[in-house]
Specification:
Blueprint (H helix, E strand, L loop, with lengths): L5 E4 L9 H10 L7 E5 L11 E4 L13 H23 L6 E4 L4 H13 L3 E5 L16 H14 E6 L2 H10 L7 E4 L22 E6 L7 H12 L4 E6 L15 E5 L6 H8 L4 E5 L7 H6 L3 H8 L4 E4 L5 H9 L2 E3 L5 H12 L2 H18 L2 H17 L5
Parallel strand pairs: 1-2, 1-4, 2-3, 4-5, 5-6, 6-7, 8-9, 8-11, 9-10, 11-12, 12-13
Length: 397
């Protein structure tokens, strides 16, 4: 189906360095740019081939109040409708047929107001459970109001795409998404031609085993320390090839056989993928404590996509209920050490780092995971068809 004329609202700007910004650019780069008009809140420049973008910044609060519940309340409760009116004045000449919202931070309240004002049928792209926003983007004191806004927005949605089946189920059970709303799964993706083939393990007699890691830290210092201590019990030297900023890693003691190898900022994801393909495995840590378990149980970290694209076995330090472990286990793409006794975790890692057929099988499983789950092109086609079906439902008033 052809892409309908689409009004798009996101929290991130076109040149955002965050993983969410990269995910938006990757999708939009495969859709016809002339069929989309893109609204946001922060100034930014859209690269060639992306849709026309316009920023609508809210009035700022005093700098001491930025990032607090006061700033969110001011934008959501006092400025959302005004911002929506400004956006709609810019969008109206384009005559959009569908409203596509990434409901994050201010885009939740403004997206709801824009839908009410325009009457357009709404499609929402959801990356995380609403409750997980309290782990960073939204102040905990504002979370009840934020979750209420999310439920209001999702009740209006004619369709959604989410990163996992588990997240779709969660949105239907407790977040207001109607059982009649269409839903599809669109995980973090990479272009198919960036998926690397499996390369060889380090020579069996190599003195150092390299472990790659990248992205945000989503685990407690105690969990990170436990993983390092497991490495400390093993008969190898380890080099942690890290694209995570050193100051963001938990400040814990490092065993004598483990050294950090911080990497400079990589301008493209492909640079990260190529670097990680020269490691023996990659590390994915997700919170295991009960209060944060929902994140692991519903979300798919973009780190997993990057590791699969590099065709490297994944060390999953996460709950057994995590989406990441379900995908890795299904494809035989790595091992899990989260919530395991240290002795069992050591055995699992010994199995991995011994090389040979076991390692090769896991690396091939990671490559299959990338090809069958994270390849961009099929997901873009499904999303375009869904936007067309949503637009065909007519007014969303």
């Amino acid at each position: 189906m052809d892409l309908p004329r689409t009004a798009l609202l996101t929290w991130c700007s076109p040149d955002s360095r965050y993983a969410g910004g990269a995910a938006v650019r990757r999708l939009l780069g495969r859709l016809p740019a002339d069929r989309i008009r893109w609204c946001g809140f922060r100034a930014g420049t859209a690269a060639p081939g992306l849709p026309e973008y316009r920023a609508f910044p809210p009035h700022t609060v005093h700098w001491r109040l930025r990032g607090t519940w006061v700033e969110h309340a001011v934008v959501d409760q006092l400025q959302a409708r005004r911002l929506a009116r400004r956006m709609w004045a810019w969008l109206q000449p384009f005559d959009p047929q569908v409203l596509w919202v990434f409901p994050e931070v201010w885009a939740v309240a403004v997206g709801q107001a824009l839908q009410e004002l325009s009457g357009l049928p709404l499609h929402a792209t959801v990356h995380d459970a609403p409750e997980s926003a309290g782990f960073g983007a939204i102040p905990p004191s504002y979370m009840p109001a934020y979750e209420r806004r999310m439920r209001q927005l999702l009740r209006r949605a004619r369709s959604v795409d989410a990163v996992s089946d588990e997240l779709v189920d969660h949105l239907r059970r407790g977040c207001g998404l109607a059982t009649t709303a269409d839903a599809l799964v669109v995980p973090p993706c990479v272009e198919a031609d960036t998926l690397l083939p499996v390369t060889e393990f380090a020579p069996p007699d190599a003195a150092v085993r390299r472990i790659g890691l990248c992205g945000s830290v989503r685990e407690t210092p105690a969990q990170w320390a436990d993983f390092l201590q497991v490495l400390g019990r093993m008969p190898y030297q380890f080099s942690l090839v890290s694209f995570t900023a050193q100051q963001d890693l938990p400040d814990v003691a490092t065993p004598s056989n483990v050294m950090m190898a911080p990497q400079p900022y990589a301008p493209t994801e492909q640079d990260v993928i190529r670097a990680l393909s020269r490691t023996e495995a990659c590390y994915l840590g997700l919170w295991t404590e009960p209060s944060r378990r929902l994140f692991a149980a519903t979300s798919v970290s973009s780190k997993l996509t990057t590791y699969a694209a590099a065709a490297r076995p994944v060390i999953v330090d996460a709950p057994a209920c995590s989406v990441a472990w379900r995908l890795v286990a299904h494809h035989g793409a790595g091992v899990r050490v989260g919530e395991m006794p240290a002795a069992d975790a050591t055995v699992a890692l010994q199995h991995l780092f011994s090389g040979g057929k076991a390692w090769r099988s896991m690396a091939e499983g990671a490559h299959r995971l990338g090809r069958e789950t994270f390849a961009l092109e099929p997901h873009v086609a499904h999303l375009q068809d869904q936007l067309a079906r949503t637009a065909a439902k007519g007014t969303g008033r």
